[in-house]
Write a structure and sequence with these properties.
Blueprint lengths: L2 H12 L17 E5 L2 H11 L3 E5 L14 H9 L2 E4 L5 H10 L4 E3 L25 H18 L4 H25 L7 E4 L5 H7 L2 E4 L11 H13 L4 E5 L5 H10 L2 E5 L13 H15 L4
Parallel strand pairs: 1-2, 1-3, 3-4, 5-6, 5-7, 7-8
């Protein structure tokens, strides 16, 4: 029995209302209540849960996911959820709520994403942006099916099948992107911040982030000049700005090096300019990269 069902039973018993109006079906008429930290986790939970879940995201469209602050209603939603899906280390406010308000019904997606350490980090920090490698997101989908099955065992087969369908879509997407980014003349990927490391590694690029893992980590002038020199030395033709991130620093590097800019969507949260859902945005990013990296 989930914590939500247990709370319902306790409330009914306390008021002696164990009648037809008080049910312990765990809310499946409405679906399990799943709260996700930000968009890729929301999209994955909706795909794996299907009609059996209602998924909400703590990060509203157009908001920068890294800097999320929780309103009281968000904390209330976390408390009442059947499952909180978050990514430890990515959104500190959500991490705090997971520990303090949802210790018995939260799941860290990073446990299934095979996260890698940040280059040069001395504190064990890992790169959280795993969803830009579709194969890692497929692994998270498989593991999430198991988490939903723990809450709702009677529908375990459905969650497993939904995850298998999601994996098929993501592996198909991976093949499309691999084909689009084959034989690229430029193999250095210069981005606003270090959000594209998993994508770069999976598809054969070397990422150079102008800012750090968080877009708030702005480089000093000397570092900007060094990146501008690298752009010229390696024949980079495009510096990538991002949706939801101020483009001014990346534009400064591009202007200094005399190259163009193009916009990538790191999918931390959907923006008004986003091309559609996760699959659509990843395809759109691949089209941008194919041109910017001079792929045949």
């Amino acid at each position: 029995m989930s914590s939500k069902a247990a709370r319902l039973v306790a409330a009914c018993a306390a008021t002696a209302l164990l009648t037809a109006g008080c049910s312990t079906d765990d809310g499946h008429g409405e679906g399990l209540q799943v709260v996700a930290g930000f968009y890729p986790l929301e999209w994955t939970a909706a795909r794996v849960g299907g009609d059996l879940v209602q998924v909400t995201s703590l990060t509203p469209p157009g908001a920068e996911a890294h800097d999320l602050e929780l309103a009281p209603k968000d904390v209330g939603a976390i408390v009442d959820a059947d499952l909180l899906v978050h990514l430890k280390g990515f959104q500190p406010a959500v991490d705090d709520a997971a520990a303090n308000e949802a210790a018995d019904h939260s799941w860290d997606a990073g446990s299934a994403a095979h996260l890698v350490p940040v280059d040069g980090s001395d504190d064990g920090a890992v790169d959280p942006h795993f969803w830009l490698d579709p194969t890692r997101l497929a692994d998270v989908g498989d593991a999430l099916a198991g988490q939903l099955a723990k809450v709702d065992p009677q529908h375990a087969d459905t969650y497993e099948q939904n995850a298998a369908d999601l994996r098929a879509d993501l592996e198909g997407l991976d093949g499309e992107i691999s084909d689009a980014l084959a034989d690229c003349r430029v193999d250095t990927l210069v981005t606003s911040h270090e959000a594209f490391g998993y994508l770069a590694d999976h598809y054969g690029f070397e990422m150079v982030g102008i800012s750090g893992i968080s877009p708030a980590q702005e480089p000093d002038p000397a570092a900007l000049a060094q990146i501008a020199d690298l752009v010229e030395q390696r024949g980079v033709t495009t510096v990538y700005t991002e949706t939801l991130v101020d483009p001014s620093v990346a534009e400064t590097v591009a202007d200094e090096a005399g190259v163009r800019t193009a916009v990538l969507d790191p999918l931390e949260g959907l923006a008004d300019a986003s091309a559609g859902d996760y699959l659509d945005v990843m395809r759109a990013d691949a089209d941008v990269l194919r041109e910017g990296q001079a792929c045949s």
